[in-house]
Amino acid sequence: MTHLLEVAGVSKAFGGNQVLSSVSFNVVKGEILGLLGPNGSGKSTLLNTISGFTRPDGGSITFNGRPIARMASHRIIQTGIARTFQLPVMPEKMSVMEVVMAAGTRQHGLINGLLGLASGRKAEQEDKARASELLDTLLLTKVKDLPAAALSGGQKKLLGIACALMGNPALLMLDEPMAGVHPQLRQELVETLVRLSQQGISLLVIEHDMHFINTLCQRCIVLDRGQIVASCRPDELAENQQVLDAYLGR
Ligand code: ADP
Ligand code: MG
User: Fold this and answer.
1) Which one of 46, 173, 178, 179 is most buried, counting C-beta atoms within 10 A?
2) CB-ligand 1 contact for 19 (6 Å cutoff)
3) pLDDT single digits (tens) 67-95
4) Does 243 have pLDDT greater than 80?
């Protein structure tokens, strides 16, 4: 079993609030791992820590054998980790297509593009083709020319996924992808994520929707007040006493 991501003993406090306490878990290459836990248990903070938006106080994070806990977030993205946000915020004046293109802007492509070099134009064309393909996959083609800020909450989540995929990540981390997504789109979103997984992308997914977790995840980890209290298959959750305690309180 190859570990793509290894999180070992990660802790984080905000002021006197110990939000993560020595969190350890792995993501196996190719798996879809669910991250569960009640509100405030530290799930988003854990994602922020892995993606470099928050620096851990202690512990190590290793991706593809490389230590990343002290890396800047833009460097972490370059190693192949992408993420979406629980509440995506979109720029006011950019169209949906422009937002996806901006997410994919390759530095060499940008500079060559500014200089009018052929390789820059080629990179831009490739990005455009990739962006169109992703908008299609995420059912956003019909709104591609609308301002991104005008999309529904659910469509913004889909757009966040399209942006994350522009960098061709090996690991995609999703923060509550189903919340706010129209019920008719949910099944399509599940199918899209399964397809991504089949293409070899590993997924770490925060989600409360149990149907989603049961359909998609091979394994789940459960956070309770900043500690991992369970690691099991989705069908084992309901009979796990620590999971029940986490959700029902003690
Ligand atoms: P979850 O995603 O599981 O609902 P969060 O990780 O968002 O939980 O939050 C866990 C705790 O960390 C909460 O008590 C929250 O107030 C606190 N927290 C999260 N981010 C910050 C921050 N940037 N500054 C201070 N406290 C924070
Ligand atoms: Mg959260």
Assistant:
1) 46
2) yes
3) 999 999 989 999 999 999 888 788 888 99
4) yes
Q: Does the CB atom of residue 55 touch ligand 1 within 6 A?
A: no
Q: Kindly state if the Cβ of 49 falls inside 6 Å of ligand 1.
A: no
Given a contact cutoff of 8 angstroms between Cβ atoms, the answer to whether 34 and 237 are in contact is no
Single out the residue of 224, 234, 203 nearest to residue 84, CA to CA. Answer: 203
CB 201 within 8 A of CB 15: no
- The answer to whether 216 touches 198, Cβ cutoff 8 Å, is no
Ranges for all domains in the chain classified under CATH 3.40.50.300? 3-90+165-248
Task: Record the tokens describing residue 239, joined without a space.
Answer: 């009979």
Q: Nearest 5°: CA angle at 162, between 157 and 163? A: 95
Indicate the pTM of the whole model. 0.91
Maximum distance among all alpha carbons in the chain? 64
* CATH 3.40.50.360 corresponds to the domain 3-90+165-248: no
The ipTM, to two decimals, is 0.98
